Amino acid sequence: QVQLVESGGGLVQPGGSLTLSCVVSTASGSVSSLGMGWYRQAPGTQRDLVAHISARASTDYAGAVKGRFTISRDNAKNTVYLQMNDLKLEDTAVYYCNRWPVPDFRSWGQGTQVTVSS
After folding, report:
1. Fewer CB within 10 A of the terminal residue: the chain, N end or C end?
2. 3-state DSSP call for residue 75?
3. d(CA 51, CA 27)
4. CB of 60 within 8 A of CB of 49?
């Protein structure tokens, strides 16, 4: 089981940017062997995968955010980031990080709210 603490959300205007951070704690003390993902859930919808990064740092993105979001990791800091640019109203959601490809359902954190509004 991992412990996950997300931060960095906020209120931003359309076209703005935010960077989310996820600090990951594991029993081994290292996240370098873990694939990680960012997920989001808007009110009344299911939680969806937005971006993922493998242990070897290969990345992929949901079509709706490709070209605007960038996922990265700093294993020395046990942290995964999500740089979000050109934010749109439809990006409004609670953003969570978790393991990828299979989330650890015991480990969902509080998430961080991202609100895009003019």
Report:
1. C
2. helix
3. 24
4. no
Inter-residue contact 73 to 36 (CB < 8 Å): yes
Tokens 């509004």 -> residue: 117
Residue 49 contacts residue 97 (beta carbons within 8 Å): no
How does the average pLDDT of the chain come out, rounded? 96
pLDDT of 1 above 90: no
- Can you tell me whether residue 108 is helix, strand or coil? coil
Q: Is 91 helix (H, G, I), strand (E, B) or coil?
A: helix
Q: What are 67-86's pLDDT values in tens digits?
A: 999 999 999 999 999 999 99
Structure token digits, residue 77:
């800091």
Taking the C-alpha atoms of residue 91 and residue 42, their distance in angstroms, rounded to an integer, is 8
The answer to whether the CB of 65 falls within 8 A of the CB of 82 is no
Give how far the C-alpha of residue 81 lies from the chain's centroid of Cα atoms, to the nearest Å. 7
